[in-house]
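note to self: dont lose this again. the chain is below, predicted strucutre after it. 173 aa total, dont forget to put it in the shared folder this time
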Amino acid sequence: MWGQDKNEELSSSEQEGKEVTMVTSNTTIADGTGDISAFVGKGVEFKGTITYSGTVRIDGRLDGEIHTDGVLLIGEEATIEAKITAGTIVCKGKITGDVTASEKVQLLAPAALSGGVKTPMISIEDGVFFNGTLEMTQTVREVSCETPREVSRETPQRAIEDPEVSASKRAAA
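---
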């Protein structure tokens, strides 16, 4: 239906404790969310670890871990109890657990987040419930390949002289 490269369906009991790597093709969604690689719909419960690339939207319930360098979209009906590591996180649902984003975290009303957040950029809309810790990190910057300039370790000498002091030194001499 979504042009998935891999189509495995597991029951909730089969999913528990399993690690899943999502490999799907991109599909453009008409509601403006862009290309979504995979979708965990409302009413779906998943327990385990999800590792993926690209953008994933979750509207169901997830208990476990989420790892990606891409985008995680959490819908208003979603309930997530997980350790999350992602590039960008956009949340309207409920998250319980520690969240690490290498780019940004965006919390939109009526989101609720209970846990630690580590990110270089955060946006919290009015009406969001946030109960936890926040650690602002620096973004990764490109390092220049230029050769650094030589830095002199000698103490610079002062070249400024007060004319009155210089005149009194000459008179005393």
